[in-house]
Design a protein that fits this description.
68% helix; single chain; mainly alpha
Amino acid sequence: MSMDHEGELARFWLRLRERLEAGAQNYGGASFRRAPAELAGEIEQELLDVCGWAFVLWCRLRRLRAVLRSEVDPNSSQAAISLSNATNSGAMS
């Protein structure tokens, strides 16, 4: 890991700690008493959520890329890209 990522790692650990503390407040110590099969089911559901949200983001990025490509004037040395047009076209929604 490069030194550039040290700060990001520190922020990641901070966010993880915040999530664990929020869980402890919401559920007390119940999470540590749950059956392993229940925990595995929770993890499976969370992984499906992560994959689902990744798919949504992937779709949105593909639409945005398509809009941006269509707004580039091939005869110009500068890209004529309008982010407002990309937003209004639904590429970012």
